[in-house]
Design brief:
The structure is a single chain. The chain has about 210 residues and is of the alpha+beta class. The protein has a domain at about 10-110 and about 165-205: Roll (Pnp Oxidase, Chain A). It has helices at about 10-15, 20-35, 75-85, 110-120, 125-130, 140-155, and strands at about 40-45, 55-60, 60-65, 65-75, 85-95, 100-110, 165-170, 175-180, 190-195, 200-205. Strands 1, 2, 3, 4, 5, 6, 7, 8, 9 and 10 form a 10-stranded antiparallel beta sheet that branches. The longest helix is centred in the first third of the chain and has 15 residues, at about 20-35. It is elongated and about 55 Å long. The two termini are about 25 Å apart.
Length: about 210
């Protein structure tokens, strides 16, 4: 007969943590070592003025005590939704570790300096693509996009490629962060951290 385990050290470690930022950093480090690619891929949910939710995969490009950062074209669907309703939710799921992290909160743009620094760190082709793409707008065919990229490549040559004003980053300042660890027999571990003034309160949840 299968024996029900109650002594998984992974569960004990994280359910005793008082710092969601440090805990997330530790989990992300483990995910980067375990996941074959894009350990920083996250589902981002937004909703515009019509109230309908929208979700898509984006890449987490930074996190600290102030929140989770991603970058996008502000003229995209998510950019328009964030302009109408500057709140978002995210989830990162690491299948190989059988873990996930959820967070939600208000969203604010990063500083121009932060956006400039990250844009400059991207590959040249990605910078050209960010300028050429009219993200979320109808596209006649792929050739049209590739011609725009080629034209921009010729225009800028080996020179600097400036960040377009409509391309920037956003920071989700979480009001709650929930950590989930898979358990046998669906007896999962869940711990939710909720913003409480300058700190966090912690509660363990039923699976």
């Amino acid at each position: 007969m299968d024996q029900l385990r109650t002594d998984d050290p992974r569960s004990l470690d994280f359910t005793l943590s008082d710092d969601p930022v440090a805990l997330f950093a530790a989990w992300m480090k483990e995910a980067e070592a375990a996941e074959p690619e894009d350990a920083n891929a996250m589902a981002l949910a937004t909703a515009g003025s019509d109230g309908l939710p929208d979700v898509r995969m984006v890449l987490l490009k930074g996190f600290d005590a102030d929140g989770f950062v991603f970058y996008t074209n502000t003229r995209s669907a998510k950019g328009a939704e964030l302009a109408d309703n500057p709140q978002a939710a995210l989830v990162l799921h690491w299948k190989s570790l059988r873990r996930q992290v959820r967070a939600r909160g208000p969203v604010t743009p990063v500083t121009p300096e932060e956006a400039d620094a990250y844009f400059a760190s991207r590959r040249r082709e990605s910078r050209l693509g960010a300028i050429a793409s009219q993200q979320s707008s109808p596209l006649a065919d792929r050739a049209t996009l590739m011609r725009a990229v080629a034209d921009l490549s010729e225009r800028y040559g080996d020179g600097p490629i400036p960040r377009p004003a409509h391309w920037t980053g956003f920071r989700i300042a979480p009001v709650s962060v929930e950590f989930w660890q898979n358990g046998d027999y669906r007896l999962h571990d869940r711990v939710r951290f909720t913003r409480a003034g300058d700190g966090w309160s912690r509660a363990r949840l039923y699976p």
